[in-house]
Design a protein that fits this description.
Mean pLDDT of chain B: 95
Largest sheet of chain A: 2 strands, antiparallel
Bound molecules: adenosine-5'-diphosphate, magnesium ion
Largest sheet of chain B: 6 strands, mixed
Strand order of the largest sheet of chain B: 6-7-8-3-9-10
Largest interface: A-B, 18 and 25 residues
Low-confidence stretches of chain A: none
Strand content of chain A: under 5%
Number of strands of chain B: 10
Helix content of chain A: over 70%
Low-confidence stretches of chain B: none
CATH topology of chain A: ABC transporter involved in vitamin B12 uptake, BtuC
Radius of gyration of chain B: 17 Å
Strand order of the largest sheet of chain A: 1-2
Distance between the termini of chain B: 32 Å
Shape of chain A: globular
Number of helices of chain A: 11
Oligomer: heterodimer
Order of helices and strands of chain B: EEEHEEHEHHHHEHEHEEH
Number of strands of chain A: 2
């Protein structure tokens, strides 16, 4: 394999991995802190993509459409937590799975009612619609680099918020002993609602920024959800650090799988998961 | 002295088991109250009933005259209470420094008497362990951290449930010393503890619970009091 070609695949794999991290981090955070298995997490990814697509019919800037889509996604996430998920904290995981699976069906049906069954696309914004030439024949698209940069910046930002701020300390404390957090005068319902909304926003943002290089269509949230569960399981359920490494691993495995063994492409991801779980049955950072 | 918090006619149940039988209990501003009674008599349950951690089926809780019956725990706490529960409530994933930083806030009158620096002066052992996780501390250090974390909220009332339980005598003395100096700053407190002799010297008032009922509420207990012998067994 040509070294430049290899480099491009590495960049693609990292870009996909960073994007997966953004979705998976919310999933693992919500499980690790609130103990909730949220099957509807992929639906927020879909919501972000469709909202952006829909808003682009009224505004002509991708950035503006995304900026408008995020508070809507946050509000939807917060309401779902406050009205539905909150009831289930002290119930077992089966109840949570049933509720959030039901939410997937509702999200998918709402998507079909509002936007139909067609597959849509979004154009890469003009300012980022060019490529960096690497050799005479190979080049790398700037938009993909921008995605990687945004995701990496958000990963660092998330790390800082969780590790360095009081909000982050409350979140971690809530994962450890939520009754004690309330006994210190902190509104845990509001805190967990905020975490859920944050997870929804990260997933929606991923769906929105990925839209120009993939397609927007029915079921897109389900595909992402499954891959994100693989990422979360590889990383160790509840671990952000694990989700980060797991996402990069899966991003690279998926990209190289498609290049090296196209016939087995969809298998490569699960092969990596099986290999990791053989060595570390509870994931990398359980 | 005006009443800071009061529970009247509190009946609390765990499922069908009737644990508090119509308790009246109040603390005035700046007052130190010892809550005494043998194991299982309902001391912790009374504290939790006041704080809305368990909800009394009957009765009323007021703070500064306002009805807070059925309010959320965090909202009751925000009215000026710091609660150090049995078992200390450490966060396994937060360092000593983070335990103190996360709970910091000014008191209800804007007072910031208790700062991070002052807590570390009060508990020099904590200053040496700032980077350690809460659950990696010794029992005594955990207790100091639990008290320090509570004081960081600049409360009007400090509630200590079995704060010296299971600690070595030297550490106990250190904790009692701090509790005395907290009392001198004018913060009210409710103290539940096995050490009756210390409580007799420290508290302004003593309340004894037997099977979820108040059998004594007054200030004239001595180590020789018959009622102590009967209900606490010293
Ligand atoms: N969470 C609970 N569920 C059921 N029963 C409880 C619970 N907590 C306490 N109890 C019971 O209530 C009674 C009073 O307990 P508690 O208030 O902890 O007593 P104390 O603090 O005076 O030792 C005891 O009989 C105890 O077994
Ligand atoms: Mg008790």
């Amino acid at each position: 394999m040509d070294i430049w070609f290899f480099l491009i695949q590495v960049l693609n794999g990292l870009q996909y991995g960073l994007l997966l991290f953004l979705v998976a981090s919310g999933l693992t955070l919500i499980f690790g802190i609130m103990g909730i298995i949220n099957l509807a997490h992929g639906s927020f990814y879909m919501l972000g993509a469709y909202l952006t697509f829909w808003l682009l019919q009224s505004v002509d800037s991708l950035l503006l459409a995304i900026v408008l889509a995020l508070p809507i996604s946050a509000a939807v996430g917060y309401l779902i937590e406050a009205l539905l998920v909150r009831v289930l904290y002290r119930r077992d995981h089966l109840d949570q799975v049933l509720l959030t699976y039901g939410l997937i069906l509702i999200f998918n049906e709402a998507q079909r009612m509002l936007w139909g069954g067609d597959v849509h696309g979004i154009k890469v914004p003009a300012a980022l619609d060019w490529s960096i030439p690497l050799t005479d024949t190979l080049s790398y698209p700037v938009y993909r680099m921008a995605i990687s940069a945004v995701c990496a910046a958000l990963a660092v930002g998330m790390y800082l918020v969780i590790q360095r701020t009081r909000f982050g300390m409350w979140i971690r404390a809530g994962a450890s002993n939520r009754d004690m957090v309330a006994a210190l005068g902190i509104n845990v319902n509001l805190l967990f609602g905020a975490v859920f909304a944050l997870g929804a926003v990260l997933a929606a943002l991923s769906g929105a920024i990925a839209a120009p290089i993939s397609s927007i269509g029915p079921g897109m949230g389900d595909t992402v959800l499954i891959i994100c569960f693989v990422v979360v399981v590889i990383g160790g359920v509840g671990s952000i650090k694990g989700a980060f490494l797991g996402a990069l691993l899966i991003g690279l495995a998926d990209t190289f799988g498609k290049v090296l063994a196209p016939d087995f492409a969809s298998f490569s991801v699960y092969a990596v998961m099986a290999a990791v779980l053989l060595v570390k049955p509870r994931g990398l950072f359980a | 002295m005006t009443t800071f918090i009061a529970g009247t006619g509190l009946h609390t149940y765990y499922g069908s088991s009737h644990t508090l039988h119509g308790i009246d209990f109040a603390v005035r501003r700046g007052e130190t109250v010892a809550l005494m009674g043998r194991n299982g008599m309902g001391k912790s349950t009374l504290l939790k009933s006041l704080l809305g951690i368990v909800n009394p089926r009957q009765g009323k809780v007021t703070m500064n005259g306002a009805d807070v019956t059925g309010a959320d725990t965090h909202a009751i706490i925000r009215r000026g209470i710091a609660y150090v529960p049995e078992g200390r409530g450490m966060f396994h994933n937060l360092t000593v420094r983070e335990h103190l930083v996360m709970s910091a806030r000014p008191g209800n009158d804007g007072r910031r008497d208790w700062t991070y620096e002052r807590i570390l002066e009060t508990f020099p052992r904590l200053a040496e362990r700032l980077g350690s996780l809460g659950t990696h501390l010794s029992g005594g250090e955990q207790q100091m951290l639990a008290v320090g974390r509570a004081l960081m909220t600049n409360p009007d009332l400090l509630i200590l449930d079995e704060a010296t339980e299971g600690l070595a005598p030297l550490i106990r003395r250190e904790i009692w010393h701090v509790i005395r100096s907290i009392k001198e700053t004018g913060i009210a407190s409710i103290i539940v503890d096995k050490n009756v002799n210390v409580l007799l010297g420290l508290a302004d008032r003593h309340v004894i619970l037997v099977k979820g009922e108040v059998v004594y509420d007054g200030s004239d207990l001595t180590p020789e009091s018959e009622i102590l012998k009967r209900h606490i067994g010293v």
